[in-house]
Amino acid sequence: xxxxxxxxxxxxxxxxxxxxxxxxxxxxxxxxxxxxxxxxxxxxxxxxxxxxxxxxxxxxxxxxxxxxxxxxxxxxxxxxxxxxxxxxxxxxxxxxxxxxxxxxxxxxx
Amino acid sequence: xxxxxxxxxxxxxxxxxxxxxxxxxxxxxxxxxxxxxxxxxxxxxxxxxxxxxxxxxxxxxxxxxxxxxxxxxxxxxxxxxxxxxxxxxxxxxxxxxxxxxxxxxxxxxxxxxxx
Lengths: 109, 115
Prior knowledge:
- The complex is a heterodimer.
- In chain A, the strands form two sheets. In chain A, strands 2, 4, 5, 9, 10 and 11 form a six-stranded mixed beta sheet that branches. In chain A, strands 1-3-8-7-6 form a five-stranded antiparallel beta sheet, with no helix packed on it.
- In chain A, strand 4 (32-37) and strand 5 form a beta hairpin.
- In chain A, 0% of the residues lie in helices and 57% in strands.
- By secondary structure, chain A is mainly beta.
- Chain A is globular, with a radius of gyration of 13 Å.
- Chain B is mainly beta.
- Helices cover 0% and strands 55% of the residues of chain B.
- In chain B, strands 2, 4, 5, 6, 9, 10 and 11 form a seven-stranded mixed beta sheet that branches. A four-stranded antiparallel beta sheet of chain B has the order 1-3-8-7, with no helix packed on it.
- In chain B, a hairpin with a 5-residue loop joins strand 5 and strand 6 (57-58).
- The radius of gyration of chain B is 13 Å and the shape is globular.
- Chains A and B meet through strand 5 of A and strand 9 and strand 10 of B.
C-alpha cells in the first residue's frame, strides 16, 4: 500500500535548527512536496524534490533520497512565525498526492 | 507565481440549504483540481479529484450526490454541498495542478458553518 510517515509533533527553540523527517512508500514516484499550514489556513507550498539531493531556499531546505524513500525539511534560524504544521506529500505514478498526517512544530522562545 | 483563488472564504448557511464553493486558477490552466476537507486539528482528507470536462472521481465514503463537483473549464471547479447539515461544517480546500503536472497549488480555503 501507499504510506507516508512523519512525526506528529516536534518542539524547537527560536533561533535554532530543526529537521522534520518523512518516509514514504508509493506506487511509482513523481516527486516529494513539503507544505506549511498555519492553524485555520490552507497549506502553502514550500518545496518540491524529484531528484536526489538537497534543495536550499532561504532558511528552508529540503532533501530527498529516492532509494531510501526518505525526505527531510530543514528549517534554520527558527522564528516564532514558523510554528505551524508541516505536511509531507509524495506524488505517485498517477500524479496523485499521498499525504502524511503532518508534523506540528512548536517554537519556544 | 501560480495563484489559486477560492471563494467564498467564509460562509454560514441554514441546515437543509445548498452552498457552492468556487476554485479558480488565476494564471495557469488547471487540468486537475482536488477538493479536500479538513476538520479542526485533523489532516487533510481528499474528497474528490476532478479533471476538466469529465466526471469527478470520489474517494471512498464521500457521497457524490451530496458533494457535487463540476470542472467545466480549465480554470474553474466548483463544489456544491447539497442539503447541508451541521456535521458538514468544516474547512474545504481546493488545489489545482497545471499542465506541467508536477506542482500543485492550494486555494485559500473556505470555512463552512451550517447552523
